[in-house]
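LAB NOTEBOOK - FOLDING QUEUE
OPERATOR: T.R.
BATCH SIZE: 2
PURPOSE: Compare the predicted structure-token outputs for two unrelated chains run back to back under identical settings.
PRIORITY: normal
REVIEWER: second-year student, initials M.K.

ITEM 1
FIELD SEQUENCE / FIELD STRUCTURE:
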Amino acid sequence: MVTPVRVVIALCLVAPFVAMLWVGSYAKTDPAFIGIPFFYWYQMLWVLISTALTMLAYKLWQRDQRSREDANGGAVK
């Protein structure tokens, strides 16, 4: 069953893949950050963003599962 919460969960999990697969958007050296070329610091930034998005997706999934259990009387279908 597709719900708005599950769409948000999917977007949280897909966003890092799209960002990393779109290489043309970050395959450059400028702007450098503390001497590190853009190509490298952009990817390292996405490691942190991916962690946050995955954690958010997990928390949303837990909340969605709890609400489904409450609606079904304790059993998830």
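ITEM 2
FIELD SEQUENCE / FIELD STRUCTURE:
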Amino acid sequence: MEKRLVQKNKKAGLTISDVILVGVLLATGAVLKFFVGSMFNAGMKPNFIIAMYCLAILIIKPRLSEAIIIGIIAGAICQVFPGTPYINIISEPLGALVMALLISLPIKFRAYSLLKPVLATFLSTLASGLTYLGVLYIAFYAGADVKAIPFNMFSIIILATALANAVIVQILYIPVKLALGRGRDD
């Protein structure tokens, strides 16, 4: 008997169903940001759009360039909401890139496989939030007309958002993946 090799074809790009999934998840994140975010009045609101692009990236596993495009679209959606203009167009692609890099790590531990959604989402949200904060302070000190809120207030909101996003993605990952017929395990 000859040894049979199973060859997995590499994806050429996002499929139509991938694009629709990203659109639906980003729209869901926008709705959450609008309604749940309206309960916060600390100058900066939690960004659930990050959770949704993290979930999309986990499920569709895009190439790095595609993940950056997802981040740019997420940043553009964030421009609809009140806040500091244009900063999300920088912070969200970086968060999406971090997410794509973290899920592409060739770590084969079962525990990592189970915790990948929570860990990757938490770190991606931190990357996005800290980038947002850094760009905001750079703009403030460069003389731009932006309101700089104290670092401790920002950091609390960033950490709380990272935790909330990590929990949301961990809870939704397997059910959404199964509902879409994308298999149970990575």
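REVIEWER COMMENT (ITEM 2): The mean pLDDT is 87.
FOLLOW-UP: none requested
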